[in-house]
Amino acid sequence: MLQVRIPEVRRGRRLVLRNVTFTSGSRVICLRGRNGSGKTSLLLALAGLIPHNGVVKASPEIRSPGIYVEDEEFYGHLTVREFLMIVSWFRGRVNDLFKIDYDGKIKDLSTGQRKKLYLTLALSGENDWLFLDEPFSNLDERSVNLLRDYLKGVENPIVLTTQTQDELCGEYINVEDFAP
Question: Distances from the Cα of 53 to the Cαs of 14, 24, 130, 154, in angstroms?
Answer without folding.
Answer: 15, 20, 22, 31
